Amino acid sequence: MLTRRDFNALAAAATASLAFKLPQSWAANQPDVLAEASFLYRKSFVLDCNTLASLGMDPERDKLIQAVRDSGVTAVKSTLGGAGGTFEEAVADIAAADQLIENRPDVFVKVRTLEELKRCKPDNRMGVVYSFEAASPLGDQIDRITLFRGLGVRVMQLCYNRKSPFAVGCLDGDTGGLTDLGRQAVAKMNQLGIALDLSHANTQSTAEGIAASKKPPIVTHAGCRTVYMHPRNKEDRELKALADKGGVIGIYMLPFLTPSPRQPMLSDYMQHLEHALKVCGEDHVGVGSDVPFQTVSSAEIKEMQDDMAKRKAAGVGSPGEDRPPYIPDMNTPRKMELIADALLKRGYSSSTTEKVLGSNFVRVFGEIWGN
Q1: Cα distances (Å, whole numbers) of residue 184 to 36, 213, 261
Q2: Measured between alpha carbons, how far is 218 from 186 in angstroms, rounded to an integer?
Q3: Would you say 128 and 108 are in contact if contact means Cβ atoms under 8 Å apart?
Q4: What is the pTM of this model?
Q5: DSSP category for residue 317
Q6: pLDDT in tens, 184-203
Q7: CA distance 61 to 23
């Protein structure tokens, strides 16, 4: 925990160093970040629990690496296998991520254990936790959970936005929950130390997943329905049940924080984050941005719009997916630093802020992975 005394004792030296300078990506429009927030951000374990999807497939490798170096992020959870990838596509995605990490051990490290996660440093190598958002790589074969764990996957969902052999997705209504196969999957994930992620599950599947899991379940990226009603956002009763089981919710930065056509801003994001803190408590809230890690350009916004059209045509796009997935006044690799700044400015303690930035997810991964 960073106390005011700690900060005063060290801030003078720190502000004189290059580390306190804002990154180049902010040069044109530097945000007014408290020096205390910058210092706290530098000393915290910063974990974005949903970003850098398919990082091994990123065609702009140099831009990615520069963003990682500029970000100050300690570790990320990366989605592999896409929103509906096949078994073969998921294996290829894992292989590409493995190859990137092997080629650039100075930038990335693959995380499979709590010990490996805790060794990650933002000024050294960024940790990467492999995950699945969709259950499609599993098909209907429980044994594949064991296989993919062997390949390093440590977080799995039972479904994406639509029904799977295991559970019902959030776009298929609020009723209909875990199947028998889904309950077997939860048991197998508990046994193997794989985190059960219920981000895309519907209301009943979320409730039944929380109840069925013997280890803390997580929601790596979602919002709060009380703040804005949307099928991808979670109800207060789900948030409370998750917290009561020891789990953590990561608040995302998707357009589903606000009604269409308004693009969400930092203030909207903070409404969801503060609501989650109120309902769950400070030990059960984190961040899972689910938006591009790098600064988004105008050309990339056009690419996002094309991708949204494809998702809509494929039937996996969500209502309100008519705005690009980013928050304009958080459009920087250091978006988590802006969250730290906003929390401190709203009167939250340094301890609470550190928990939200990443230590809550570190704690719950340790309890789930068992090492």
Answers
A1: 47, 10, 41
A2: 12
A3: yes
A4: 0.91
A5: P
A6: 999 999 999 999 999 999 99
A7: 19
